[in-house]
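Provenance

Sequences were taken from public entries as deposited. Structures were produced by running a predictor on each sequence independently, with no templates supplied. The record for diguanylate cyclase from Thalassolituus pacificus is shown for reference.
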Amino acid sequence: MVRNLVTRDSLTSLLNRRESMRRLKEEVLRCQRYGNKLCVALLDLDRFKRINDTYGHAVGDRVIKHFALLLKNGLRDGDIVGRVGGEEFMVVLPETTVAVARRTFERLAEELRENPFSDFSYTFSGGLVRCLPGVMDDALLEQADVALYEAKAAGRDQVVCVDHPVSGH
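Predicted structure for diguanylate cyclase:
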């Protein structure tokens, strides 16, 4: 119980930012040591401020919980999902290729379209990267954030993949 208070987000019961970052670091080290496949995504709810401004923060919280449940139910048991900001989530997909990760997020977006939030529909955008030799967790997150920004700039409701080497520092 006490451990959950330290590692879990109080609204969604997903991993909190600190625990998400700790788990990401572990998976990146495993990827670097053993050459395992690893993909990381940052996901952000589109136009979330508008939802809060229009419907209020209580509804905004319900939307965040709705999305968290979609992620929990739509990912594998070994995948790592955490809420790392207000409406921002990180997903770590061990032993996953970019193609499989992309299909996973396309499936989640489709499921969200087919089963929208009770009062209205919403979408998410994402930035997806794969772990490459020599790339550490901070560089991966920077690249995922750049890809997320590109997804937002390109019209939202999509996941942009950066599938090329980035320099690790």
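The CA atoms of residues 116 and 132 lie 35 Å apart.
The chain has one domain: 2-162.
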